[in-house]
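Case study.
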Amino acid sequence: MELAVVSVLGADRVGIVAGIAGVLARHNVNIVDISQTVVRDIFSMVMVVDMSKADVDIAQLRRELEEEGRRLGVMVGVYHIDVFRYMQRI
Amino acid sequence: MRFDPSEIGEVLEMLLFRELDIRAVTLSVNTLPAIRPTVGDTLAALEEALEPLLKRLRPAVERVASRLGVRIVTVRLAVSPVSIMLEPIGKAEAAVEIAKHLDGLAEKHGVDMVGGFSAFVHAGVSRGDAALMEALSEALNSTRRLAGFLNVASTATGVNMDAVRAAAEAVLKMEPHAAARFAATANMPEDVPFMPGAYHGLGLPDAVVNIAVSGPGVIEAVVRNMPNADVRTLHDAIKRAAFKITRLGELVGREVAKELGVPFGSVDLSVAPSPKVGDSVAAILEAVGLPRVGAPGTLFALALFVDAVKKGGAMATSTIGGLSGAFIPVSEDAVMAEAAREGALTFDTLKSTLAVCNTGIDMAGIPGDAPPDAVAALIADVMAAAVALDKALGVRLVPIPGAKPGDVYDLGGLYGRVVVMDLGKYGDIPLARRRGTAPPAVERLKKG
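After joint prediction, the assembly is written out as follows.
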């Protein structure tokens, strides 16, 4: 598995999950784990996704997700799982 | 491998809101094979040695930053001390030409800074050293990305007062942007990724990648969340944060080295500030419990912080290098600069802090017409401490023309706002005009 973390943060509205998941599905990126909350109208979502069968690299996926984020008015970040592996595991 | 949402959240918070990034990726290259007897041949050979690596450097760094999703703020190059390359030529004009050429190469290849316009003169001055020293102020004044130092003292040899004097006089001839790229140093290690200390050491392979981490904002947030913790608990929390910051450096270093096909050198554990809000070492010290950095307790807070950073970082990387302490460059740290402007931070305070950190006196402004004696004596003080304590220290002073203590000069970018500090009332200091090299301390005898 080639895992990445997708984070989404911003004002809550209808269609954020659908919009982000749509981009992932279009590029054959599988959602492995997802956690999502809304606190005081602030939408927060963290996904762990598998890119091993994706038809784009992480840089291209980031560009498209950021573009989708702009459309939805939310901030999107895409990070390689190694960042979390290095910082949180010995 | 499963991650708890809070673990993922913690890392995201550091990257998104606490300014956690990699301060510098520094490619260190052995340029000694480019030594030639004439300057024209030297420039051609330098280009031939550096271009194949430089062409790939920036793209490699960008690929790693993009893949990981981590910001890498600056891309740098360190070359062998230019003084060595000048040995067969021995002319200051050649030194200036090499300086401009390196600057041009850096600009062409998107390299933010080049380190290594440097000489080791702690026990005496060779032909190449003399050429570099004579050219120093002109070379830095006529470039934008070049950095260098004069290593004027070492534990093994003592303090070379002739070189201290030369460093002081060179600084006073520099424009502010040039002085910000020069330091007088003692005991400079070979694998420093930070400027102006970076150079390619004699004990290194042909090329290595060294990493400088950032992340004061991360540690400040940790400290602010523990207002009632005792100092040992606080130390432990800082240690854990330092571990995580350093691990990011280790990851990026390995990845960039792999991309470039060169060995990974080291991670400098130093937590470096930047002029951005929320990226300040001084703010950490204030969060530990100081009304203002410079107040009584500053040394204790800094010692606690540095010790925690070293212990946390030591576990995070198997290749510790550089200076690995705390950096407190006055202008590059917004809170530090403000404390200096208010007069809370003086040269005496900075001199005391060098006992527990690896900076010395860094990025402090002085009046452009400062007396050379006072500047040389200030450098000599720090060098003496470096020799006595057997550690690497530097002095980086920025003369501001027409300015008086309290004035502020904006250098821009990572250099920040230089505050002109008071050098004191003594302009005539005969000691600073004495010649020769002060002997090393007894520390030297312990080494055999």
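Observations recorded in class. Chain B touches chain A at residues 1-3, 5, 7-12, 14-16, 66-70, 244, 247-248, 250-251, 315 (CB under 8 Å). Chain B has a mean pLDDT of 95. We will return to this complex in the next lecture.
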